[in-house]
Amino acid sequence: MQVNRNASASSFGWEFQANAAVVLFVRHIRQASAVRVEGARDDIEIILEDGSRVYCQAKARATNNPGEGSTTRFYQALETLKDDLESPDCDAILYVTNDDHPFGKTYDIAALHEDAELHFSELSDEVQDFVKGRALEAGIKADDLGKFSVRVIGFYGDDESTRRRIIMRHVENFLESINCLSAVQLNKTRLRSQWGQMLQENSSKLDLSICISKKEFIWPIIVEACEVSHDDKFFDECDEDLVGDVLCAFRRAIDSQSERFSLTTKILSDYQDYRRACDGSRSRVKTAFIKDSWKNYIGELGADCLDEEEQRVLSGLVISKVINRGHLIDSVRMEVGL
Hints:
The protein is an alpha/beta fold. It is 49% helix and 12% strand.
């Protein structure tokens, strides 16, 4: 039997699980409030705004042979999904795999190849009979299959770009759906990596109540949109040593915003109030606002330990980036339902 040469089956499965969680969460993002990987009941749990959950069993094929072992993986998934159905907060159950033949080679469903999701009612009569039979064996009532769907996410290959191409397609489609791709140049690969790391770290939390909120999940988009470098024009009149210190402080501040969108909301609201009371071009008003208001955000930026010049430049940089990306920030919040 040939196996993936880059990783063991278990580590490959962990990687698939985290990347599948990215795809599933962005799919439900407008109705969701949080996601948990390795939750109290299932591999991936999507928590919806009304408190109900979509329970997902993720099973990966690590061999080079599509369909090999797929029926066993499906039976194993049903055992857990049966228990999920008994939870009063169960909105839906989902079997997600990277195998184009999720129910075995006998049932070749072309519509499920590589990247697709089908509800139980969308399966052919033959496949429905197969799923129903296996579900009944697992203790799932036929009426409960109205909550069942199957999802295939292509995820295989030694080359990372090949293995993750479907995941990247979903990331790009999601960013386009919330009007991000046309607004700014985002590092989509780095964003996917950040999401994957967040979800993998979430799976290691012993407290199973710890989830990744929608705000936490979306925040890296704002971080990417507010990316800053040494040659940013904001630093034109700054000493080189100061620039380095402020860049480090900026990254710490923007990465560790525990309330995520609260500071951006405050800055944008304060700026709009200031702008209504001032005359002049947008550029002049922004410059005046930074000069008059930079001290107001030092505490929230965690910059109390910096000297006054570093505080001034750091706060001014954050204000400038937030104002420049204000339309994008508001658009993202609206599109994802924050």
